[in-house]
Amino acid sequence: MDRTVLVTGASGYIAGFAIQQLLREGWQVRGTIRNLARSDEVRGWLGVNANQLPLFAADLTSDAGWAEAASGCTHMLHIASPIPAAAPKSDDELVVPARDGALRALKAAKAAGVTRVVLTSSTAAVTYGKGQIDRPFTEADWTDETHPDTYAYVRSKTIAERAARDWMQANGAPMEFVTINPGLILGPVLGRDFSTSLEALKKLLEGALPGLPRLGFPVTDVRDVADAHVRALTHPGIDGGRFLVAGEFLWLEDIARILKAELGPKARKVPSIKLPDFLVKLSALFDPTVKMVLPELGRARAVDSSHVQTVLGVRLRPAEETIVDTANSLLETGIVKA
Ligand code: NAP
Description:
Helices cover 40% and strands 13% of the residues. It is of the alpha/beta class.
Protein backbone atom coordinates (compact mmCIF):
# COMPACT_ATOMS: atom_id res chain seq x y z
CA MET A 1 0.00 0.00 0.00
CA ASP A 2 1.18 3.54 -0.73
CA ARG A 3 2.29 5.37 2.38
CA THR A 4 0.78 8.83 2.62
CA VAL A 5 1.65 11.06 5.52
CA LEU A 6 -0.05 14.27 6.60
CA VAL A 7 2.41 16.77 8.10
CA THR A 8 0.62 19.45 10.16
CA GLY A 9 2.14 22.93 10.28
CA ALA A 10 3.98 22.45 6.97
CA SER A 11 5.18 26.07 7.14
CA GLY A 12 7.23 25.33 10.28
CA TYR A 13 10.93 24.78 10.87
CA ILE A 14 10.95 21.10 11.89
CA ALA A 15 8.17 20.30 9.41
CA GLY A 16 10.25 21.61 6.50
CA PHE A 17 13.13 19.24 7.21
CA ALA A 18 10.74 16.35 7.89
CA ILE A 19 8.91 16.93 4.59
CA GLN A 20 12.17 17.01 2.64
CA GLN A 21 13.36 13.76 4.24
CA LEU A 22 9.99 12.05 3.68
CA LEU A 23 10.02 12.99 -0.01
CA ARG A 24 13.61 11.73 -0.37
CA GLU A 25 12.49 8.43 1.17
CA GLY A 26 9.61 8.00 -1.28
CA TRP A 27 6.61 8.92 0.88
CA GLN A 28 3.52 10.59 -0.53
CA VAL A 29 3.38 13.77 1.55
CA ARG A 30 0.67 16.35 2.15
CA GLY A 31 0.63 19.21 4.59
CA THR A 32 -1.60 21.59 6.48
CA ILE A 33 -1.02 25.31 6.76
CA ARG A 34 -3.22 27.98 8.29
CA ASN A 35 -3.50 30.12 5.20
CA LEU A 36 -3.41 28.65 1.69
CA ALA A 37 -2.28 32.04 0.34
CA ARG A 38 1.18 31.04 1.67
CA SER A 39 1.29 27.81 -0.36
CA ASP A 40 3.77 29.00 -3.03
CA GLU A 41 6.02 30.60 -0.43
CA VAL A 42 6.15 27.39 1.65
CA ARG A 43 6.73 25.13 -1.37
CA GLY A 44 9.41 27.59 -2.54
CA TRP A 45 11.49 27.20 0.66
CA LEU A 46 11.23 23.45 0.39
CA GLY A 47 12.03 23.33 -3.33
CA VAL A 48 8.90 21.28 -4.11
CA ASN A 49 5.93 21.65 -6.43
CA ALA A 50 2.20 21.30 -5.78
CA ASN A 51 2.18 17.64 -6.87
CA GLN A 52 4.91 16.79 -4.41
CA LEU A 53 3.25 18.70 -1.57
CA PRO A 54 -0.53 19.19 -1.73
CA LEU A 55 -1.50 21.66 0.98
CA PHE A 56 -4.75 21.92 2.95
CA ALA A 57 -5.98 24.73 5.18
CA ALA A 58 -6.39 23.76 8.84
CA ASP A 59 -6.09 25.80 12.02
CA LEU A 60 -5.50 24.22 15.42
CA THR A 61 -8.36 26.28 16.82
CA SER A 62 -11.06 25.27 14.33
CA ASP A 63 -12.64 22.00 13.15
CA ALA A 64 -12.65 23.14 9.51
CA GLY A 65 -10.41 21.31 7.06
CA TRP A 66 -8.99 18.54 9.29
CA ALA A 67 -11.11 15.68 7.91
CA GLU A 68 -10.33 16.63 4.30
CA ALA A 69 -6.60 16.94 5.03
CA ALA A 70 -6.38 13.54 6.77
CA SER A 71 -8.60 11.65 4.32
CA GLY A 72 -6.60 8.96 2.48
CA CYS A 73 -3.57 9.24 4.79
CA THR A 74 -1.89 6.21 6.35
CA HIS A 75 0.30 8.19 8.78
CA MET A 76 0.41 11.61 10.43
CA LEU A 77 3.13 13.85 11.83
CA HIS A 78 1.35 16.29 14.11
CA ILE A 79 3.98 19.03 14.47
CA ALA A 80 1.98 22.29 14.54
CA SER A 81 1.81 24.13 17.87
CA PRO A 82 2.41 27.78 18.75
CA ILE A 83 5.89 28.89 19.91
CA PRO A 84 5.73 32.48 21.14
CA ALA A 85 8.56 35.00 20.97
CA ALA A 86 7.32 36.68 24.15
CA ALA A 87 5.17 35.72 27.12
CA PRO A 88 1.49 35.63 26.09
CA LYS A 89 -1.16 37.59 28.02
CA SER A 90 -2.78 34.35 29.17
CA ASP A 91 -1.90 30.63 29.11
CA ASP A 92 -4.94 29.96 26.95
CA GLU A 93 -3.28 31.64 23.95
CA LEU A 94 -0.93 28.64 23.84
CA VAL A 95 -2.69 25.90 25.79
CA VAL A 96 -5.93 25.99 23.79
CA PRO A 97 -4.37 25.62 20.30
CA ALA A 98 -1.75 23.13 21.53
CA ARG A 99 -4.19 20.85 23.40
CA ASP A 100 -7.33 21.22 21.28
CA GLY A 101 -5.30 21.13 18.06
CA ALA A 102 -3.67 17.84 19.10
CA LEU A 103 -7.10 16.36 19.82
CA ARG A 104 -8.46 17.62 16.47
CA ALA A 105 -5.49 16.05 14.68
CA LEU A 106 -5.93 12.72 16.50
CA LYS A 107 -9.68 12.58 15.84
CA ALA A 108 -9.19 13.34 12.15
CA ALA A 109 -6.43 10.73 11.93
CA LYS A 110 -8.55 8.05 13.59
CA ALA A 111 -11.56 8.80 11.37
CA ALA A 112 -9.34 8.57 8.28
CA GLY A 113 -7.89 5.18 9.28
CA VAL A 114 -4.37 6.47 9.94
CA THR A 115 -2.26 3.68 11.44
CA ARG A 116 0.20 5.79 13.46
CA VAL A 117 0.45 9.40 14.61
CA VAL A 118 3.78 10.87 15.68
CA LEU A 119 3.24 14.01 17.77
CA THR A 120 5.91 16.64 18.39
CA SER A 121 6.03 17.24 22.12
CA SER A 122 9.07 18.76 23.82
CA THR A 123 11.55 18.47 26.66
CA ALA A 124 9.22 21.15 28.07
CA ALA A 125 6.86 18.27 28.94
CA VAL A 126 9.68 16.42 30.73
CA THR A 127 12.19 18.62 32.54
CA TYR A 128 10.22 21.30 34.45
CA GLY A 129 8.46 21.68 37.77
CA LYS A 130 10.77 19.48 39.79
CA GLY A 131 13.31 21.87 41.28
CA GLN A 132 17.00 21.12 40.69
CA ILE A 133 17.59 17.47 39.78
CA ASP A 134 21.19 16.26 39.65
CA ARG A 135 20.76 13.61 36.98
CA PRO A 136 19.82 13.72 33.33
CA PHE A 137 16.06 13.63 32.69
CA THR A 138 14.63 10.56 30.94
CA GLU A 139 11.37 9.65 29.20
CA ALA A 140 10.00 8.53 32.59
CA ASP A 141 9.97 12.15 33.82
CA TRP A 142 6.96 14.43 33.43
CA THR A 143 6.79 18.16 33.99
CA ASP A 144 4.57 19.22 36.89
CA GLU A 145 2.80 22.09 35.15
CA THR A 146 1.41 23.42 38.44
CA HIS A 147 4.93 24.24 39.71
CA PRO A 148 6.02 27.93 39.70
CA ASP A 149 9.15 27.00 37.70
CA THR A 150 6.92 26.52 34.59
CA TYR A 151 5.65 29.11 32.12
CA ALA A 152 2.94 29.23 29.48
CA TYR A 153 4.80 27.45 26.65
CA VAL A 154 6.02 24.70 29.02
CA ARG A 155 2.49 24.25 30.34
CA SER A 156 1.04 24.15 26.82
CA LYS A 157 3.35 21.34 25.70
CA THR A 158 2.82 19.32 28.90
CA ILE A 159 -0.96 19.67 28.86
CA ALA A 160 -1.14 18.88 25.12
CA GLU A 161 0.95 15.70 25.38
CA ARG A 162 -1.02 14.48 28.41
CA ALA A 163 -4.36 15.22 26.72
CA ALA A 164 -3.23 13.40 23.57
CA ARG A 165 -2.07 10.35 25.56
CA ASP A 166 -5.31 10.29 27.59
CA TRP A 167 -7.39 10.50 24.40
CA MET A 168 -5.36 7.71 22.78
CA GLN A 169 -5.81 5.53 25.88
CA ALA A 170 -9.58 5.92 25.75
CA ASN A 171 -10.23 6.10 21.99
CA GLY A 172 -7.08 5.45 19.99
CA ALA A 173 -6.83 1.71 19.27
CA PRO A 174 -5.90 0.33 16.82
CA MET A 175 -4.19 3.58 15.79
CA GLU A 176 -0.67 3.85 17.24
CA PHE A 177 0.87 6.89 18.88
CA VAL A 178 4.42 8.06 19.56
CA THR A 179 5.86 11.36 20.78
CA ILE A 180 9.16 12.99 19.90
CA ASN A 181 10.32 15.34 22.68
CA PRO A 182 13.06 17.64 21.37
CA GLY A 183 15.19 20.13 23.27
CA LEU A 184 15.78 23.65 21.98
CA ILE A 185 16.31 23.34 18.26
CA LEU A 186 19.00 24.95 16.16
CA GLY A 187 20.32 24.15 12.71
CA PRO A 188 20.37 25.55 9.19
CA VAL A 189 17.32 27.50 8.02
CA LEU A 190 15.30 26.82 4.87
CA GLY A 191 13.74 30.24 4.54
CA ARG A 192 13.49 33.57 6.24
CA ASP A 193 10.57 32.41 8.43
CA PHE A 194 12.50 30.44 11.05
CA SER A 195 11.55 29.18 14.50
CA THR A 196 11.67 31.31 17.64
CA SER A 197 14.22 28.79 18.96
CA LEU A 198 16.93 30.40 16.78
CA GLU A 199 16.44 33.83 18.36
CA ALA A 200 19.15 33.42 21.02
CA LEU A 201 21.81 32.55 18.45
CA LYS A 202 20.62 35.31 16.12
CA LYS A 203 20.83 37.86 18.94
CA LEU A 204 24.33 36.67 19.90
CA LEU A 205 25.60 37.05 16.32
CA GLU A 206 23.93 40.45 15.85
CA GLY A 207 25.50 41.79 19.02
CA ALA A 208 21.99 42.41 20.36
CA LEU A 209 22.89 41.08 23.82
CA PRO A 210 24.98 43.32 26.09
CA GLY A 211 26.53 40.23 27.72
CA LEU A 212 25.97 36.55 28.35
CA PRO A 213 23.18 35.72 30.82
CA ARG A 214 23.42 32.42 32.73
CA LEU A 215 21.04 30.72 30.33
CA GLY A 216 21.57 27.40 28.63
CA PHE A 217 19.80 24.57 26.83
CA PRO A 218 20.37 21.11 25.38
CA VAL A 219 21.47 21.92 21.82
CA THR A 220 19.37 19.91 19.40
CA ASP A 221 19.76 19.79 15.63
CA VAL A 222 16.67 20.22 13.45
CA ARG A 223 18.00 17.58 11.04
CA ASP A 224 18.23 14.99 13.86
CA VAL A 225 14.77 15.91 15.10
CA ALA A 226 13.31 15.50 11.60
CA ASP A 227 15.09 12.14 11.28
CA ALA A 228 13.60 10.95 14.59
CA HIS A 229 10.10 11.91 13.41
CA VAL A 230 10.47 10.05 10.12
CA ARG A 231 11.91 6.92 11.74
CA ALA A 232 9.18 6.94 14.41
CA LEU A 233 6.51 6.74 11.70
CA THR A 234 7.32 3.14 10.81
CA HIS A 235 9.68 1.63 13.39
CA PRO A 236 7.89 -1.50 14.68
CA GLY A 237 6.88 -2.10 18.30
CA ILE A 238 7.04 1.44 19.67
CA ASP A 239 3.33 2.22 20.18
CA GLY A 240 2.98 4.62 23.13
CA GLY A 241 6.69 5.42 22.99
CA ARG A 242 8.25 8.69 24.05
CA PHE A 243 11.60 9.73 22.61
CA LEU A 244 13.72 12.56 23.97
CA VAL A 245 15.85 14.11 21.22
CA ALA A 246 18.23 16.59 22.79
CA GLY A 247 21.97 17.01 22.66
CA GLU A 248 24.57 18.36 25.02
CA PHE A 249 23.47 21.02 27.55
CA LEU A 250 25.45 24.21 26.85
CA TRP A 251 25.41 27.62 28.51
CA LEU A 252 25.30 30.70 26.26
CA GLU A 253 28.85 31.27 27.43
CA ASP A 254 29.91 27.93 25.86
CA ILE A 255 28.01 28.74 22.66
CA ALA A 256 29.65 32.17 22.44
CA ARG A 257 33.08 30.55 22.85
CA ILE A 258 32.37 28.08 20.02
CA LEU A 259 31.13 30.87 17.73
CA LYS A 260 34.21 32.99 18.34
CA ALA A 261 36.59 30.05 17.86
CA GLU A 262 34.94 28.72 14.69
CA LEU A 263 33.63 31.82 12.90
CA GLY A 264 36.43 34.28 13.53
CA PRO A 265 35.57 37.82 12.38
CA LYS A 266 31.99 36.81 11.49
CA ALA A 267 31.42 36.38 15.24
CA ARG A 268 32.96 39.69 16.25
CA LYS A 269 29.68 41.05 17.69
CA VAL A 270 29.22 38.03 19.97
CA PRO A 271 29.73 39.26 23.55
CA SER A 272 32.34 37.81 25.90
CA ILE A 273 31.35 39.25 29.26
CA LYS A 274 28.94 37.53 31.62
CA LEU A 275 25.69 39.26 32.53
CA PRO A 276 24.92 39.08 36.26
CA ASP A 277 21.52 37.61 37.21
CA PHE A 278 20.32 40.84 38.85
CA LEU A 279 20.74 42.74 35.55
CA VAL A 280 18.79 40.09 33.67
CA LYS A 281 15.99 40.27 36.27
CA LEU A 282 15.98 44.04 35.98
CA SER A 283 15.69 44.02 32.19
CA ALA A 284 12.84 41.49 32.46
CA LEU A 285 10.78 44.30 33.96
CA PHE A 286 10.87 46.08 30.59
CA ASP A 287 11.39 43.30 28.05
CA PRO A 288 8.70 40.57 27.69
CA THR A 289 11.13 38.25 25.86
CA VAL A 290 13.55 38.34 28.78
CA LYS A 291 10.65 37.93 31.21
CA MET A 292 9.64 34.71 29.49
CA VAL A 293 13.04 33.07 29.99
CA LEU A 294 13.60 34.17 33.61
CA PRO A 295 12.71 30.69 35.01
CA GLU A 296 15.64 29.35 32.95
CA LEU A 297 18.21 31.58 34.65
CA GLY A 298 21.01 29.43 36.11
CA ARG A 299 19.10 26.18 35.46
CA ALA A 300 20.91 23.27 33.81
CA ARG A 301 18.45 20.70 32.46
CA ALA A 302 20.48 17.84 31.02
CA VAL A 303 18.65 15.15 29.11
CA ASP A 304 19.45 11.49 28.42
CA SER A 305 18.83 10.87 24.70
CA SER A 306 20.13 7.30 24.58
CA HIS A 307 16.64 5.82 23.94
CA VAL A 308 16.18 7.50 20.54
CA GLN A 309 19.68 6.48 19.50
CA THR A 310 19.47 2.82 20.55
CA VAL A 311 15.85 2.17 19.54
CA LEU A 312 15.37 4.37 16.46
CA GLY A 313 19.03 4.52 15.41
CA VAL A 314 19.09 8.33 15.22
CA ARG A 315 22.61 9.75 15.26
CA LEU A 316 22.77 13.04 17.17
CA ARG A 317 25.22 15.56 15.72
CA PRO A 318 27.81 17.12 18.04
CA ALA A 319 26.56 20.46 19.45
CA GLU A 320 29.51 22.28 17.94
CA GLU A 321 28.56 21.18 14.40
CA THR A 322 24.96 22.32 14.96
CA ILE A 323 26.01 25.71 16.31
CA VAL A 324 28.44 26.40 13.46
CA ASP A 325 25.95 25.26 10.79
CA THR A 326 23.22 27.45 12.33
CA ALA A 327 25.44 30.51 12.41
CA ASN A 328 26.69 30.04 8.86
CA SER A 329 23.15 29.55 7.61
CA LEU A 330 21.87 32.70 9.38
CA LEU A 331 24.74 34.64 7.82
CA GLU A 332 24.45 33.14 4.32
CA THR A 333 20.69 33.78 4.14
CA GLY A 334 21.24 37.39 5.22
CA ILE A 335 19.00 36.90 8.28
CA VAL A 336 22.00 38.09 10.27
CA LYS A 337 24.26 40.78 8.81
CA ALA A 338 27.89 40.06 9.77
P1 NAP B 1 7.71 26.91 14.01
O1 NAP B 1 8.60 27.04 12.84
O2 NAP B 1 7.21 28.14 14.69
O3 NAP B 1 6.47 26.01 13.61
C1 NAP B 1 5.26 26.04 14.29
C2 NAP B 1 4.18 25.61 13.32
O4 NAP B 1 2.93 25.56 14.02
C3 NAP B 1 4.01 26.58 12.15
O5 NAP B 1 3.77 25.85 10.99
C4 NAP B 1 2.79 27.38 12.57
O6 NAP B 1 2.06 27.91 11.49
C5 NAP B 1 1.99 26.28 13.24
N1 NAP B 1 0.93 26.83 14.07
C6 NAP B 1 1.05 27.63 15.15
N2 NAP B 1 -0.16 27.97 15.61
C7 NAP B 1 -1.06 27.39 14.78
C8 NAP B 1 -2.48 27.36 14.70
N3 NAP B 1 -3.26 28.01 15.59
N4 NAP B 1 -3.06 26.62 13.72
C9 NAP B 1 -2.31 25.95 12.82
N5 NAP B 1 -0.97 25.96 12.83
C10 NAP B 1 -0.36 26.65 13.79
O7 NAP B 1 8.41 26.06 15.13
P2 NAP B 1 9.09 24.62 15.13
O8 NAP B 1 10.34 24.76 15.87
O9 NAP B 1 9.11 23.99 13.80
O10 NAP B 1 8.08 23.84 16.09
C11 NAP B 1 7.30 22.78 15.66
C12 NAP B 1 6.91 21.92 16.83
O11 NAP B 1 8.07 21.51 17.54
C13 NAP B 1 5.99 22.57 17.86
O12 NAP B 1 5.08 21.59 18.31
C14 NAP B 1 6.95 22.93 18.99
O13 NAP B 1 6.30 23.02 20.23
C15 NAP B 1 7.89 21.74 18.93
N6 NAP B 1 9.21 21.98 19.53
C16 NAP B 1 10.01 22.97 19.04
C17 NAP B 1 11.26 23.20 19.62
C18 NAP B 1 12.17 24.27 19.15
O14 NAP B 1 13.15 24.55 19.84
N7 NAP B 1 11.93 24.86 18.00
C19 NAP B 1 11.67 22.36 20.69
C20 NAP B 1 10.82 21.36 21.14
C21 NAP B 1 9.59 21.17 20.55
P3 NAP B 1 2.34 29.40 10.93
O15 NAP B 1 3.53 29.29 10.02
O16 NAP B 1 1.07 29.74 10.22
O17 NAP B 1 2.59 30.27 12.13
